[in-house]
Design brief:
This protein has about 250 residues and is α+β, with helices and mostly antiparallel strands. Helices cover about 30% and strands about 20% of the residues. The protein has helices spanning about 30-35, 85-90, 145-170, 180-190, 195-205, 210-230, and strands at about 5-10, 20-25, 45-50, 90-105, 110-125, 130-135. A hairpin with a 5-residue loop joins β4 (about 90-105) and β5 (about 110-125). α3 (about 145-170) runs parallel beside α6. This is LON peptidase substrate-binding domain-containing protein. InterPro entries: Lon_prtase_N, Lon_prtase_N_sf, PUA-like_sf.
């Protein structure tokens, strides 16, 4: 299978195809990555791969502190990810296309990227100023009954939205604003639900769209039931992800 080598941006969150990712980049390793991406002509995609962190820290320690004031400060592209970065990351990630990379006066960057396609991480290279990875494309198959499942997920998602809106005493997107293409539905709902990173990662690496939709249908019914019981359950905005600390 054809592979591609891209810069790696590990995060404590999961990026899905079609979803927007805002980043505030301040660590030197990622600033170096953005400077390299800026060398790509504007009419070509400025791509990097986002992988969720399995075991490690999104932001490297820059000074000793709690709970261990004697902890060693880490530097370099692998800081916070141990001696074998490949083991620190989930293997399925998402390619991101940086539509906007703006350098601030202090040398940090504001970045706005969009997830494009799933990839599987096969190796990590830490020899440069930032991590790069060898990645193979992970095609998205529809699976059986994806269309019917998408309809059911949308119905359940609307109920989930209503429950969250009640818990937050605010209104959310209406059903008319939601897509109906099964693959798009599966990724939007996966990104929009208030779930932990391991669960979102499981949805990202589903073998096909139908499997992801079935999983989401179970999750939506369960989460809606929980919210009904605990109406004060906190929730984040459903239509956008948080800005990374990096």
């Amino acid at each position: 299978m054809t592979t591609v080598r891209l810069p790696l941006f590990p995060l404590n969150s999961v990026l899905f195809p079609g979803l927007v990712l805002p980043l505030s980049v301040f660590e030197e390793r990622y600033r170096a990555m953005m400077r390299e991406l800026l060398k790509t002509p504007e009419d070509e995609p400025r791509r990097f791969a986002v992988v969720a962190i399995r075991d490690g820290h999104e932001v490297a320690r820059t000074a000793p502190g709690l709970p261990d004031p004697t902890a060693t400060v880490e530097h370099g592209p692998t800081a916070g990810f141990g001696t074998d970065p490949l083991k620190a990351f989930h293997k399925v990630g998402c390619v991101a296309d940086a539509a906007t990379i703006r350098e601030r006066a202090d040398g940090t960057f504001e970045v706005l990227a969009t997830g494009t396609s799933r990839v599987r991480l096969t190796s990590v290279d830490a020899s440069g100023p930032f991590l790069t990875g060898e990645l193979e494309p992970l095609p998205e198959e529809p699976g059986d009954e994806a269309g019917a499942l998408a309809e059911g997920v949308l119905r359940s998602f609307r109920q989930y939205q209503k429950r969250l809106a009640g818990a937050r005493e605010r209104s959310l997107a209406t059903g008319s604003e939601l897509p109906d293409e099964p693959g798009v539905v599966s990724y939007l709902v996966a990104a929009a639900m208030v779930l932990d990173t391991p669960t979102k990662q499981r949805l990202l690496q589903s073998p096909d769209t139908a499997s992801r939709l079935r999983d989401e249908l179970r999750l939506l019914r369960s989460e809606t039931s929980i919210i009904r019981t605990l109406p004060s359950l906190p929730a984040s905005d459903l239509t956008r992800g948080p800005t990374s600390l990096n």
